[in-house]
Design a protein that fits this description.
49% of the residues lie in helices and 28% in strands. The protein is of the alpha+beta class and 145 residues long.
Length: 145
Amino acid sequence: MKTATTIIQETWKESWETFYNEALGETQNNEEMSSEQITNRIEMLNHANQHIDTILNQFNELNTIFPFISEATDKLERFLKKEDRYDYQPAGFEMEITGHIKLSCDSLFDITSPMWIDCDVEFDNDYLSITLHEQDEELKVYLKS
């Protein structure tokens, strides 16, 4: 029997594989990019693909604690609303998976916005972003040049 977590991870993996195959095909057939840009993009996609299980496992671990962080944030917000003056700075982090892959979350315990996790893959000014929002378990993947 599959758990909800397993199903979510399988869905994320399917989303990644669809994106990866489409992006690889589009890159290989792109007439506007130089051969160097095409090679660089393919290396970036392949590098991300080699590490996708690690990335998705990190996303899963963080997604698992989102409800607890949300509950703590809600209690913190109620506490702060009782005070007239406060200076609150939300927490965040950045974690390096490889020299080209970084995982970050800037909105932990942010009382004004939902939490999100972002994984950026960078190769010579070409970027791939994988994002997961607290309120939407759908993985979003896109290229940024």
